[in-house]
């Protein structure tokens, strides 16, 4: 599967599976009839004071609407004048509140629709609870009765009854219920592919699973809660913006309170209903109405990209990321390094090196290991051997040793990073001060400078030579890193390769820096160093050894195929397990922040424009000098106020699609983004009210409403 990263935050992919699925999700309609119908009903439910109180600006609007309603009832009983004007103002005040509730309800409804589809995948399953692990004896129980630590047997055709870790066996698992991807994946014990999710189905073979999550707190349950927004809390930026909006509201309260004094001085009066309407049109109702919808929609866009964010804080942090840590394999390179050459030391026969390398790779299921077996067969005709009769002992690769190998028929064969193999030979021979063979150094440097990975091979304490593994950098990745650089994001490639190889690949890919011979401790240290400089760091990982770094990073994206420890440590989970998507997560985070900033700019500019559009029209009768500022020539003061209150409500509905989709994301620097926002949304926020209010005024005057 080959992916190419293109500009403007869009991934084009050459596969027909996950990439196409993500594209379909992105193109899905913003407005669904069922969602709109539910949102309309929910708009009225949200009129409850407790729910309104979560949004300070709209709570104030609801309070003054209620006050206006009470005053209207009093005037109606007293036979007050101009009741038609009051009825229209009160109606549009409540419509403004309902439109704000509707915007939030639509955003929440999209999440509920996704949660409903997830619930359909949750089947009442039974479980084969192991009563004797050794003999595979089991008894049938309900999945709801399983407890933490229980061991269950799952065979072909069975649903996995709960989240857990595979402790024995290997099986193909269909995870379409979670990821939407129909292609089965391998789950096995003892590695980074041991985590299984409740509700997925075993397709072949069998596994024993230790339950790690109680009923009601499984991964699927958490997914449903997340997409429903049940655990969503306001982010620090939202809280800060709410404080700003509350401050602006207070300023306009003070401005409105002074208006009766000016009217009295001019020997006139301004009705209370007019003051209430003017107050609502001037406070920042636009961004106040859309703020929650913007935040919910940001998390929703991630879900549609098959990424679950544990909180809105994580999405915001993604938008503010300064440093991006990217694994080389699978993210920057295609991931399948291929053995291209056996390079023996001067005193070693090339066939002997190939034979040892092949032996050490017979049980290696990685693409690199299989390519070594294939190269040995194609180059020297060395065929594979069955391991069972040879009583071989396999030595697995670890991040600490950076080697793997095999002990077979009195031979100890190791392959891995050159310095790790040299240290192994030193410890095996007892010669702690043995120098690194000069021929080995030259081969390693030559391979590394060409961008390949040198894999040293040793047998019984003797270094035989090097296997040349070649990495292929993904097409288009260099241009994408250039875009990130223009946005002020520093990219760091993380790899277990030696520094020379890492430097060659880093130069070809266009990253800003690299961390070679990376261990879990080195990753953690790098993240802490970046954070100590005040930077926000994003990274992805899938193994238990990645868990500390994932937990430390500001944005930690855990792969769904990874271990339970990794998934618990991260604050995002990528259901497609695609490390390339980290770049797109940053783009979605930036789009969220840009959308909020753009609509805040528009809302504030809107309020300023409405102030200078309405005040002259209202007071021109009291102060004729204001005629010079009355550029809109509105029909009369009542028409000016009514037009403004109608515009104030309609602009909320008009901006809902933008709040849900987000503003168009174009990678560029902060200064360029600021200029663009001020030009489009600042200037637009000033022009649109003048045009909109004037058009509404013409309609109102034509039909005689004011």
UniProtKB/TrEMBL annotation:
Superkingdom of the source species: Bacteria
Gene3D superfamilies xref list: Calcium-transporting ATPase, cytoplasmic domain N, Calcium-transporting ATPase, cytoplasmic transduction domain A, HAD superfamily/HAD-like
One Pfam entry name: E1-E2_ATPase
GO terms, molecular function: ATP binding; ATP hydrolysis activity; magnesium ion binding; P-type potassium transmembrane transporter activity
Residues that hold Mg(2+) according to the record: 542, 546
Record domain P-type ATPase A: where: 134-228
Binding residue positions for ATP: 364, 368, 397-404, 415
Membrane topology: Multi-pass membrane protein
Family label: Belongs to the cation transport ATPase (P-type) (TC 3.A.3) family. Type IA subfamily.
Subunit-level organization: The system is composed of three essential subunits: KdpA, KdpB and KdpC.
PANTHER family from the UniProt entry: POTASSIUM-TRANSPORTING ATPASE ATP-BINDING SUBUNIT (PTHR43743)
Name of this chain's protein: Potassium-transporting ATPase ATP-binding subunit
């Amino acid at each position: 599967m080959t992916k190419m990263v293109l500009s403007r935050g869009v991934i084009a992919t050459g596969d027909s599976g996950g990439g196409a699925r993500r594209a379909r999700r992105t193109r899905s309609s913003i407005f669904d009839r069922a969602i709109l119908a539910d949102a309309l009903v929910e708009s009225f439910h949200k009129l409850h004071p407790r729910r309104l109180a979560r949004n300070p600006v709209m709570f104030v609007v609801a309070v003054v609407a209620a006050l206006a309603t009470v005053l209207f009832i009093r005037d109606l009983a007293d036979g007050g004048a101009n009741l038609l004007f009051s009825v229209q103002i009160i109606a549009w005040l409540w419509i403004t509140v309902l439109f704000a509730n509707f915007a939030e309800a639509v955003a929440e409804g999209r999440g509920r629709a996704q949660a409903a589809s997830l619930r359909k995948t949750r089947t009442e399953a039974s479980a084969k609870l192991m009563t004797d692990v050794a003999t595979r004896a089991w008894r049938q129980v309900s999945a709801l009765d399983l407890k933490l630590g229980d061991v269950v047997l799952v065979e072909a055709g069975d649903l996995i009854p709960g989240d857990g870790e595979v402790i024995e066996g290997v099986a193909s698992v269909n995870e379409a219920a979670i990821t939407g991807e129909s292609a089965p994946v391998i789950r096995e014990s003892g590695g980074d592919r041991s985590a299984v999710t409740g509700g997925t189905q075993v397709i072949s073979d069998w596994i024993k699973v230790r339950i790690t999550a109680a009923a009601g707190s499984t991964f699927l349950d958490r997914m449903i809660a997340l997409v429903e927004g049940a655990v969503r809390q306001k982010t620090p930026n939202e809280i800060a913006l709410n404080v700003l909006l509350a401050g602006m509201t207070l300023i306009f309260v003070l401005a409105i309170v002074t208006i009766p004094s000016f009217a009295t001085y001019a020997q006139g009066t301004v009705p209370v209903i007019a003051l209430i309407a003017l107050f609502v049109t001037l406070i920042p109702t636009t961004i106040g109405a859309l703020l929650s919808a913007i935040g919910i929609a940001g998390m929703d866009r991630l879900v549609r990209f098959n990424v679950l964010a544990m909180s809105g804080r994580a999405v915001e942090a993604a938008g503010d990321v300064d440093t991006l840590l990217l694994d080389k394999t699978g993210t920057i390179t295609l991931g399948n390094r291929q053995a291209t050459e056996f390079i023996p030391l001067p005193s070693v026969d090339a066939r002997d090196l190939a034979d040892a390398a092949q032996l050490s790779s017979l049980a290696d299921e990685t693409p690199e290991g299989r390519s070594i077996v294939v190269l040995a067969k194609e180059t020297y005709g060395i065929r594979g051997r069955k391991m069972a009769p040879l009583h071989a002992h396999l030595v697995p690769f670890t991040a600490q040793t950076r080697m793997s190998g095999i002990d077979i028929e009195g031979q100890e064969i190791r392959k891995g990073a050159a310095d790790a193999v040299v240290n192994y030979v030193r410890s095996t021979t007892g010669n702690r001060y043995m120098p690194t063979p000069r021929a080995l150094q030259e081969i390693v440097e030559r391979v590394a400078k060409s961008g390949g990975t040198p894999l040293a091979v040793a047998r019984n304490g003797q270094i035989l030579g090097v296997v040349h593994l070649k990495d292929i950098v993904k097409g288009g990745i260099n241009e994408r890193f250039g875009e990130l650089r223009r946005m002020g994001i520093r990219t760091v490639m993380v790899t277990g390769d030696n520094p020379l190889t890492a430097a060659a690949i880093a130069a070809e890919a266009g990253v800003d820096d690299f961390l070679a011979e990376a261990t879990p401790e080195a990753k953690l240290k790098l993240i802490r160093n970046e954070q100590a400089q005040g930077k926000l760091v994003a990274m992805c990982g899938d193994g238990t050894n990645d868990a500390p770094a994932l937990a430390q990073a500001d944005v930690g994206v855990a792969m769904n195929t990874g271990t339970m420890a990794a998934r618990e440590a991260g604050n995002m989970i990528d259901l497609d397990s695609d490390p390339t998507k980290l770049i797109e997560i940053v783009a979605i985070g930036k789009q969220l922040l840009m959308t909020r900033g753009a609509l805040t700019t528009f809302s504030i500019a809107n309020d300023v424009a409405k102030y200078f559009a309405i005040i002259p029209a209202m007071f021109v009768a009291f102060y004729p000098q204001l005629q010079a500022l009355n550029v809109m020539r509105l029909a009369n003061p009542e028409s000016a106020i009514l037009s403004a209150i109608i515009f104030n409500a309609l602009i909320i509905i008009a901006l809902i699609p933008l709040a849900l989709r987000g503003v168009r994301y174009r990678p560029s620097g902060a200064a360029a983004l600021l200029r663009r926002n001020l030009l489009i949304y600042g200037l637009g926020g000033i022009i649109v009210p003048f045009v909109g209010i004037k058009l509404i005024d013409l309609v109102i005057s034509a039909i005689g409403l004011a």
